[in-house]
Amino acid sequence: MFAIIGRRLLVAIPTVILVSMLVFSLQKLLPGDPIATIAGEERDPQVIAYLHQKYHLDDPIPVQYIAWVGQIVQGDLGVSLRTDEPVLSLIAQKLPVTIELALFAMTFALCIGIPMGILAAVRKDTWIDTAATVIALSGLSVPNFWLGIMLILLVSVKFGLLPASGFVPPSQNLWLNIQTIIMPAFVLGNALAASITRHTRAAMVGVLRSDYIRTARAKGLRGRVVVLKHALRNALIPIVTIATLLFGELLGGAVLTEQVFTIPGFGKLIVDAVFNRDYAVVQGVVLCTAVGFIVMNLAADVLYTIINPRLRHA
């Protein structure tokens, strides 16, 4: 297992370097001057020149990149051009919100998607399989922002069961925190459940046709034991793959859902930073998102070896 982790880390290091170069370079291609948006209405040339010098924006791009990487190595992601706050501090404020939302959404997705996929595979070519396929396609087709608005109108406005928007940290009020996170998490989890359902069904259909499954049934094992103990475990690898990738996407920020429900997470942070041309925040958030994807892929590789011990010697 440690050898697998070591090999993945060796691949991850150049990947992070390449991503950092792309993030830094693409950011510089955006039109306009970020300093002009924070220099005030008068835009005094002396103020603009001072701010350019302060943030080293007049240096050559390679010099700026090397200085930026040097700061990152020291744990400094820079300072926001708009608020003059450390980017690391802004990320530390927003990341726990997005992590909580992602965990709740993934819980919904797994609790809905895996049972539906198993049922569709076991009842292949029946009305249950067709119904699961239709529900999965519906989940993929319905836009998150539309479903979110409909839930707000129905659950919050009409019946008053849950808060329509906002976010309360669990440290302040745990029950109110759960109430504010349920609807946005369900909206995100609904779309993810559709993908997980389809992948679970495809994996289970292939496994259920295997010789060892027919042998297990011939030995007289109960259908539930065959499906859950023998078939599901061998079908988990593609499910783990898609689940970790989807979770990485959630950590990147569910922009539309966070905007609809006014959730102060990564999505809102990156949108505000792009509109304000806040280079340091955009670079920091995108870099953290990329690292999050790499960590999730590493976690998937570790889970593979736990699920299937034969992969430890691959």
Report the CATH superfamily of the largest domain: MetI-like
What's the tally of helices? 13
Counted beta strands: 0
Q: Determine the structural class based on helices, strands and strand pairing.
A: mainly alpha
The proportion of residues forming helix, as a percent range, comes to: over 70%
Question: Which radius of gyration do the C-alpha atoms yield?
Answer: 24 Å
**Could you list the spans in which at least 5 consecutive residues all have pLDDT below 50?**
none
CATH architecture of the largest domain: Orthogonal Bundle
Largest sheet, in brief, is:
none
Alpha-carbon distance between the two ends = 10 Å
Order of SSEs, N→C?
Answer: HHHHHHHHHHHHH
| Text of the CATH class of the largest domain | Mainly Alpha
Write down the overall mean pLDDT.
81
What keywords describe this structure?
globular, single chain, MetI-like fold, 314 residues, mainly alpha
Overview of the molecule:
With 314 residues, the chain is an all-alpha fold. It folds into 2 domains: 2-73, no CATH class; 93-308, MetI-like (MetI-like fold). Helices cover 76% and strands 0% of the residues. It has 13 helices and no strands. It has helices spanning 2-28, 34-38, 45-54, 61-73, 87-122, 127-141, 144-158, 174-208, 211-218, 223-251, 255-260, 266-275, 279-307. The longest helix has 36 residues, at 87-122. The N and C termini lie close together (10 Å). The mean pLDDT is 81.
